[in-house]
Amino acid sequence: MKATATARRQRWFAAVAPVALALAASACTDGYPSKDAPAAHTLSAAEHIHALNDMLRHEARTVDAKLTLATPCVLRLATTAPGEREQTASLRLETLRIAFSVDERYRVSLARDANAPVARDHRFVVDDWHDAVAFRSHLQQLQMACAASKD
Asked: What does DSSP say about strands 74-80 and 106-111: parallel, antiparallel, or unpaired?
């Protein structure tokens, strides 16, 4: 009698275990991407600019901002406030300083060089810490591409 009860438990476990494992495995993917994001170092300069502009578009802003690459080493920032004309600034990637901070929101700041103050129109609010780090990473990849273009 003991052997048949043990055998029944083993058969039950053998039947239920694969189903439970499949359910557990499928539940772990809820809300997570199904594949990894591309490695930042494998993207082209145009793809980095596109990713940066996507982060700028996702935020509810009072000023529209768009980045373009004028040359491999010059980043052009165009900003337009409601009812105003577009303003552009050229930022040299070789000397660009990138920083981020948190004061209720995540901010990415750009300065023309290490000693320059961050201009008010060169400060961007992004959605979260991940976006702040990604924003900095994309800019750093552009800086490395600039340095490589000079070799």
From this structure: unpaired
Angstrom distance (rounded) from CA 132 to CA 55:
9
Count of CB atoms within 10 A of residue 143's CB?
18
Answering whether pTM is above 0.70, one says: no
Residues of the chain with pLDDT under 70: 1-3, 5, 12-41, 57-62, 113-114, 116-121
Q: C-alpha distances in angstroms, 116 versus 24, 30, 119, 120, 139?
A: 53, 45, 9, 12, 18
Contact in structure between 125 and 107 (CB atoms under 8 Å)? yes
Average pLDDT over the chain reads: 77
